[in-house]
TrEMBL record:
<feature type="domain" description="NAD(P)-binding">
    <location>
        <begin position="7"/>
        <end position="196"/>
    </location>
</feature>
<dbReference type="InterPro" id="IPR016040">
    <property type="entry name" value="NAD(P)-bd_dom"/>
</dbReference>
<dbReference type="InterPro" id="IPR036291">
    <property type="entry name" value="NAD(P)-bd_dom_sf"/>
</dbReference>
<dbReference type="Pfam" id="PF13460">
    <property type="entry name" value="NAD_binding_10"/>
</dbReference>
<dbReference type="GO" id="GO:0004074">
    <property type="term" value="F:biliverdin reductase [NAD(P)H] activity"/>
</dbReference>
<protein>
    <submittedName>
        <fullName>NAD(P)H-binding protein</fullName>
    </submittedName>
</protein>
<dbReference type="GO" id="GO:0042602">
    <property type="term" value="F:riboflavin reductase (NADPH) activity"/>
</dbReference>
<dbReference type="InterPro" id="IPR051606">
    <property type="entry name" value="Polyketide_Oxido-like"/>
</dbReference>
Amino acid sequence: MKVIIFGATGSIGRLAAEEMIKAGHTVSAFARHPERLKLDHPDLNRFAGDALNAEEVLNAVAGHDAVVITLGAGTARRSVIRSQGTLNVIQAMQAHGVRRLICQSTLGARESWPNLNFWWKRVMFGALLAPVFRDHELQEQMVAASGLDWTIVRPSAFTDAATRRPVIEDVSPAARGLDLKIARADLARFLSRQLGETTYLGRAVGLSS
């Protein structure tokens, strides 16, 4: 399968590219500076571009079978890269007839809000990262209304090391007492898996230890 990853030089995008290549897919890495992706493989292509530039996104999506969005804004708290970049991706997919979309969001969005603890509800998403959270919610609304074959993936907070408890897949909105952590490597493997599975087609799926 020919896959393009938007946000491929981020911490999740890089690992997802590696996992997808291992699984036998041909991966295109779309980023403003794709040369920063420290991965050398014959099945890896690089596209330099800005997800906020609709024309660049349109040109990049052509010829692919699936799209994976792992867009992030680093430390910027008021960026609209997730929502506006995702809108450009959706419109490009619709224009080229590309159906499969896997979009990374965050646990806590929409009906998964009850999964969060006080710290995440009131301090992080309620105050410090409120604009980021609103952009995630807008992103999800666009994906769900796209008419594409979409899956929204909602990970909890990232760690580099393995989590203390096993990761729960498809976290119920009723789940409480979660550690609210997931290893980046576990998330990358899950994103790669979705290219060959339809279990969560047309659904949002939460991941957390």
